[in-house]
Specification:
With about 60 residues, the protein is of the alpha+beta class. The chain has helices spanning about 5-15, 40-45, 50-60, and strands at about 25-30, 35. It has one domain (about 5-60).
């Protein structure tokens, strides 16, 4: 079970697994002036890094996930 603060992990994974493979290389968000692809976001969120937390929070705020 995912903790309340990590709900973005579950939401992200549901979206990511259904993305077509070529789409995973597309930029999904920009964090600190750095473009982040779905693939990079996946790695960061899966490893629960600080950047992953920022990505997850922003994706929820923008209603992408």
């Amino acid at each position: 079970m995912v903790g309340k603060n990590e709900i973005y992990v579950e939401r992200f994974m549901k979206i990511y697994v259904n993305l077509p493979l070529p789409e995973r290389d597309s930029v999904v968000i920009v964090i600190d002036d750095e473009p982040i692809s779905w693939s990079v976001a996946y790695k960061e969120i899966k490893e629960k890094t600080e950047l992953g937390k920022k990505i997850g929070k922003k994706l929820i705020e923008l209603k992408i996930i």
